[in-house]
Structures are given as C-alpha cells and as structure tokens.
Amino acid sequence: MKSSMLVLFLVCGVTHITGDVLNNGTGKIPSDGDDRVSVSSFASNSIATSVATELSRQNTTEAEKLQETNTIQSGKLPISTQNKDVTFVDSNGERYKSTIKKVTGISGHSSTEAQPHQRLRSSEPKKIYSNHESRVVSSSTEAITASFSSKNSSSFGEILNSWYPLYGIARLGKEVTSSKCREQLQELVEAIEARKVWALKALDASGTPEPGFFYGNNLWIGSHFQCVDISNRKPFEVNKNVPHAMQTPYDYPPFQMAFTMVYARHNSTLQQHTQLPSEWTVQLGLCIPKACRSNDIKYLSKKYLSEDNLEFQKIYKINLDVLDVKQLREDAGWFFMLPKTMAFSVVVLATLFCCILGTILDVKRHNREKNLVRGHNAGITVNGKCATPNISTVELVPSGSHSDVFKVEPSTLEEVLTCFSVYSNTKNLMKTKLSADSIGCIHGLRFLGMLWVIGVHSIFYQVDFFKDQAVGFRISEEFFSQIFSNSTYCVDTYLLMSGFLIGYLYFKAKNPHEEAKKSINWLGKISEFFQMYMNRYLRLTPPYIVLILFADCVYTYFKYSSSLTSFERQDELCEKYWWRNLLYINNLYPRSEMCLSWSWYLSLDTQAFMVATFLLILSTIAFKIAAVFTILLVIGNIAAVSMKSYSIGYIPTMDEQFAQLDAIYDLPWHRIGPYLVGLITAYFLKVQLENKLNLQKRTRVFLWTVFPLLNLWILFTIYTRQISTEYSAFYMGTSRVLWGIGISWILIACCTGNAPLLNKFLSFKGFIPLSRMTYCAYLLNPLTAQMMFLGSESAFTAVKASMALSICAVSLNTFYMSYLYCLMFECPFVLLTKMAMKKIMGKRSPSTINNADDCKQQHIDNNTNRNTGNENNNR
C-alpha cells in the first residue's frame, strides 16, 4: 500500500512538472524569454520531504545495483558521476532545493538518484533557469519515472509474452519433464528480463509475426545464422577504429543454443489464398536451448499458441495449431552416415575413378597413335593393299575426310574405360561442325527452349519461399508476364521437337511408301520396336537413376538443416515410388505421390515415343492406316482436354494451374498432341517436300504473319483470365496443337531456305554444345534451384528484379552442373549403349573398321570424331 501511494504521489508530481509547472501555472508554453520555472509539484512541504526521502532511498539502491553490474561486467568502477541542483517552488511560494545525482557506468548505462529536498531561506534570491536547464529538470524527472516503471517486471513480461513467442514459450518451461531443459529455459527467461546480451541476441534471432500476413507471409523465420553465431567467441574482423560494443561475459550463453522450427496451421480467412500447399502453415523459428527436445518444444509451443497469447492472434482472430517441430542440425556427420548418402558417394567415386583412368588411357593412346604415324614417312603397299609391318594391332580408321588414321585397337576393357574419357567427351560435346544434311536450327530451338524452361522452374520452385505470394500472383496478371504465367507451352515446344526428330531420323533411313511395298517381316518389325525402345531406355535411364539418388540425398540434408521448408518431400516420395520413375509411368499417379515433380515430362516423352515408334513402324506396313490413326489421336487429344476442362469448370488462372496439374497437365492423352504434330511435320518435310519448298514472296509473308500471330495469340489472349468455361474448354483443347503447328512452320521454313536470317541465328555454333547438354540441364535445373533457395538464410520477395536475378543465377549454375553431369553420367553411358547395341547387332566398333583402299595420307586428323555417341544427341 505504501508503495502504491508513493507511486501515486510521484505521478502527480510528474504531471505538474510536465504541465503547469513549466508553464508558470498559466497552462501555456513559456516563451523563450521566460526562463523562470515555478514548480507546484507537491501539496505540502512534509509530503515533498517524505517523497524525496523515499526516492533517495530507492534510487540509491538502484544506483548501487547498476554500479555492481558495471563492476562485474567490466571489472571497473563507474566512470562518471554528475550532480545537478534543482530548485522547486511550491504553491505558497516556498522554495526547496534537491540534488539530482546521475551515475554513469563504463557500459554507458546510467541511473538517476534524487536527494531529499532542503528548504531554502526566504531571503535567498530565486534562481532563474535557462531553457537548457529547464529541459534538464524535465528529463531528470522523466528518468525518475522510468526508474519506477521499470520495476513493474510483470508488465514488462506481459509485453514480451504478447509479442515474442520465444519468451512466452520459454516462460512455460517449468512444465516440461526434462530438468535440464526446464532449468535452461528458466535461465533464458531471467536473462531476457535482465537484458543480458546473449539472451537478447537469442530473442532477436527468433521469429515474430511478420508484416504482410494478408498477402501470404507465413514465414516468421528469424535468423538461423545469428542463433548459431551467438556462441561464436571470435570477434568480428573489422577496423579497430570502428566503434563497437565491448564484449563481456554476458555476451555468450552459458549453454548450447539450437535453432528450432515450429510449424503451425492457421485458420485465417483474411489471408489471400492461392491454393498452394504452404499457404495454411505458419513457420516459426526459435533460438532455444539445445537441451530441449523436439517433443518438449512442441508441447510448450502448442500450449502457448493455443492460449492466444500473441497480440497478433487477438488482432486477426487467428487460431494456431502446432503440427510439427524440427530442431535443425548444424553438423553434417549424421548425413554422411546415411546408407543412401554412402551409396551415392560410392557411385560418384567409382565414376570419378573411371573418368580419371579412362582419360589417362585415352590421352596415352592418342599420343601413341600420333608417334606411330610420325614414324612412318610413307605408306607401305603390298599387293595393292596398305600394310603396317610388325604392328599387328594397328588398323586404319576412316577420318571423315580423304585421310586415314593409324589407331591402336584397344581391348574391350580399354574401350569401356575410354567411354569415360573427359578428354574425348569434352571434345565431342564442344564440337560445332555439323554434317551437310543436319538440322542446325534444332540446336537453337532446343537451347532457347531450355532457357525458357529454366526460367519458369526458377520461379515455380521458389514459390514456397516467397513471403508475399499474393504479390507474385499480381505480377503474373500483367501482360508481358504471360511469358512465365502462361509458360506451359515451353514444354509443348520440346514435345514437338522430340516428335519431329524421331520422325525425321526414321524417314531419313526408310521411306514408308517404298517399305510398304516389301513383304512384311513381322518378327523383324517387333524386334525393331524393342530395339528402338531399349536404345532410348539405356541412353536416358543411367543419368536418371543417379539423379533420383542425388535428389533423395539433397532433400534429406536440407530437410534437417535448412530454416526454409520445401513442400516437395522428395526424400520421402523417392524412397517409396522410385520404381515408377524407372518404368516411366509416374505421370499416371497423383502429384502427391510423384518422385521428382518435374520428372513427369520424362515419362510423358517416353510414352509418346512408344506411340510414335509404333506409328512409324506401322507406316512401313500400311501407311494409310498409320496416317488415319495419327489424325484420330490428334482429334482425340483435343476432345479429351476440352471435355475434362469443361467438366471441372477449369479456368487457367495461376492458382488453378497449380491445383489442377494432375487433372489437366500431366496425363499423356492430354499432352501428346504436339508430339504427333512434330511427327507429321517430319513426314511432310522429309518425305513429301524432300527439304525443298519454293514459295512466292507474297505467300511467304502471309505465312510468316499468320503463324507467329497464332503463337502470340495463344500466349497472350487470356492474360486477364476473365473468360467463360466454354471458351476455356475450347482454348485448352486446341491451343497446344495450334502451338505445335506454329513452331512447325519455323522448322519447315528454316530447313527449306524460307528463313535464312532466322536459320543462321538458330544454327549459331555457340548453341550446339549447350544444346547437347539440355537433357542433363532439364534433369538438374529444379534441383539446382531448390539447393540455392534452401541454402538461403531468409525468405524471398516476389519482385521482378529479384526473380530476374534468380533466373540468371539458376541458369548459369544449371549449365555448369550439366557439363559435369554430362561428362560423368550421360556421355559414358551413351557410348556404352552404342557399343553394346553394335555388339548385339554383330557390328564392330567404329574404332576397328578397316579402310585399306586409300593410304595416300597417313597422319592424325584432329577433326576425327572417334566416339559417335553424340552425333545427333537427339532425345
């Protein structure tokens, strides 16, 4: 009661000081010329004296505590003491004098001590204060008030409890069963209330409700790095002359801290929902004692959040239900001890060993052949045939020109190891010389199409980490943003090129009209189908298997070490459903059960390849039947998509595109249309036109106007998304086939000389090596993007500049990793597949083919392509 009365009297005094007292009792702000201060703070002299005495006693205690704290922290006594005499005048005109004592410690903290008032003689002249001194009186009085208010620890604790989840959760620590966790949580609470530096750092590193909740900001992550760095005693390497806080024993926690993520589901209907899996989950980061287990934190956080302690919950009327808790692991030892990590390490190390050994053998053989040829000044002819005496292992190999090359025939083991040669595979990847009948423009289309795919994937796989997802959706509504928000047609471009390439290469080898006239060898046709499929399967699957294992390891690592969370769950799904990927059927199952969400395209492309192979072989038996089947499949594709779109009321808004991937996007009968258009294009170009098409200028201009406008219409016509269900069904059914027709015109025009400038650009030699790496780039780019994003410390913002920077960074890293991946896992297995297929078919390896017809030149032709596995590199 006494303390309450004291506070009441003090508040009355402060009110008068800050109000009427400094206004000379007039209620007006004194002018600059009025320096006299009339104080009527207290009702009587006795009350004033008692208040001053109590102030002196309590503030002296505070000063002593501060002095003791400074002495402990710095090892020194307080560095300065200032005394200020202040005169008060009561309502009766009596004047009193008091001394305000300010004690400043070495850490910069200060306390104010008020001495008891002394009554001055009436004969003493009244002191006239300047404006500056008047402000000192006011500030000193405010300091006294602050000293009293800081004593209300319960009020301070309630503020922390309402705004800082870490404090509120730690304050409930007495309810956990673990004594060590309970003690450390209690010590953390006391340290926060005492404002110890290490505890404030932990509080600062923990997450709090973030702005932007209405637009999807559920990422209350805090700072993982700062939490880990609290215990780091190494000083920052900065200029010594730069002012910085002195380190004290209270800067470091007395126990280990760990960063823990709490996942809670909210029920707010105020937030702008976008049908994304992360939109209902609040992710809260806590810098908490490491001794506390996940179950302890889950129990405490559930209790804290269920009681609506946060002001955020009260303002927005939100309930938060804790789903899971994850304590992040700082060391990597656990990761390398996992069986799948060890298996992946064995694969990588074994492949690296083969690459090193194969490169050494390849370079040595290359040098030996060089020296061998230099030792022969002229060819030796015996009975009109070329001979090389005493060298039984040397044979002549055609170089692709009029010269022959001496090569040493390797053993089978050497030939296998040479397939892993970094030297030869790099040379083959970087080759830019194309044969006369090759389609150069396909390389440009393939590379530019892959850049488009990477750009889309960079944004698509970053959405989980946007703290303003609704802003991203707003940006997607803009006209030119349709390049990304309506970007599914980049996949249709690849489907068209795949169908075109398989048809072009097949019709290049066989004319269906001539083949149909021959007698039918059914066993041979069946064998041809399986040979084509197995050749494709063996070429594409090895790098695919390695990627599945790699992705499983990567997602497992980031799941337990990253403060950001990917909702892909690839570590769980790949362990269960990897076999669907190897059978190329995973696109027939829901996305929620798909290992590697981007691998649906590989399954789709393989399924379309099988259909196209069947149609191609059928065309050599009954061409008209094959043609009718192809047309019916295209019509069926259009009808199936239109009916499905109409039945579910599909409108291709951004959120619906995410939500309806299973229903509209992945299924083969919904996407095969462009592939078949590519097949038809190959037939007309190679068989009907024979790569020749003479058009009048007027016709050429008309076609170059219609088809580009067709593609632009498809890309931009629905940018407002304000369309009817009927129009949407028509658009979805026809747009992909029409897109394929538009791209087909580019291929035909470039191959027939009707687009010389465009063909020259798309056939640019710099595109050729990059085009050969597009398969690995497609495999790696989503994984590369997620590795970059999950390795980040904080959430991202959906702004154009940030997204453009992400696209550039992901593109560069993707192609860099693709080059290494190609050398290790694609090129070697492509060459091994060709070697195996040739052995099975009874053909000798290209490196052992004899050519004794011409031995006029016997030197090494550096342009010789000994490994033909990447001649076309068509997928």
Helix content: 55-70%
Which band does the percent of strand residues land in? 5-15%
Assembly type of the chains comes to single chain
What radius of gyration results from the CA coordinates?
39 Å
Query: Low-confidence spans: pLDDT under 50, at least 5 residues?
Result: 1-80, 88-92, 105-117, 119-151, 380-405, 843-875
The N- to C-terminal Cα distance equals 87 Å
- Global outline: globular
Helix-strand category: alpha+beta
Walkthrough of the structure:
It is built from 33 helices and twelve strands. It is α+β, with helices and mostly antiparallel strands and 875 residues long. Among the domains are: 2-151, no CATH class; 154-328, no CATH class; 339-428 and 851-870, no CATH class. The strands form four sheets. Strands 1, 2, 3 and 4 form a four-stranded antiparallel beta sheet that branches. It has a four-stranded mixed beta sheet with strand order 5-7-6-8. Strand 9 (380-382) and strand 10 (385-387) form a beta hairpin. Helix 15 (441-460) crosses helix 33 (800-840). The longest helix has 41 residues, at 800-840. The chain crosses the membrane at residues 342-361, 439-463, 483-507, 537-558, 625-652, 701-719, 739-758, 770-791, 803-832. Residues 68-77 have a biased composition (Polar residues). This is Nose resistant-to-fluoxetine protein N-terminal domain-containing protein. Keywords: Membrane, Signal, Transmembrane, Transmembrane helix.
